[in-house]
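Hi team,

Below is the intake form for SCO family protein from Banduia mediterranea. Please confirm the fields before the structure is written into the shared record.

FORM ID: S-0412
PROTEIN: SCO family protein
ORGANISM: Banduia mediterranea
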Amino acid sequence: MRQLKPSLAFIAMLLLGLATACSRDEGFHAKSIAGLMPALEFSLTNDEGNAASAQDTAGKIRLLFFGYTSCPDICPVTLGRLGAVIQGLPEERRERVRVLFVSVDPQRDSVAKLHAYVDYFGDQVIGLRGPEPALRKLAQRYRTTFGYGDPDETGFYEVSHSSGIYVFDGSGAARLLFRPDDPLAAMQDDLGQLLDEAS
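The structure came back. Fields below:
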């Protein structure tokens, strides 16, 4: 008996259907990373000098962002935007959201410096730091990286890092990727949806 071979058109339709299913945004504005990234997990030190892990903020929506306090542009702008998004939420909902700012510049970002920096951006921001190998491992876990530029005559150097913000739900599952050009209203709406899920 002759075996029937699927047509190229059928294969193309099947692949298109799979791609559409994988990229479905589940009603969110931001890019969905559900099932594409591992759950939130880390072992670092917070901006008060205490050991910190994902369990410390379990049950809250977590926004993970890599940066450094000497950053001239991306970091302050991003943290300012996130602060505006969170402040736009009803007061009782703000306490259910945390921004996890991971410094990838352990040489300059002491506990005290990190604490002063994140404190400027609001109570919902937690600074995290650690030795470079631990930071490399965490960055690799979420498929990103960072690097150091050459110091200038004053010793200042820039740190290259991602501008993406990884959004995790209360259970620690990766859900969304916020990007620099995402509108504040869209980000706020997405956080609202995640908070509704946990209600």
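SUMMARY LINE: The domain at 26-198 is CATH 3.40.30.10 (Glutaredoxin).

Thanks, M.
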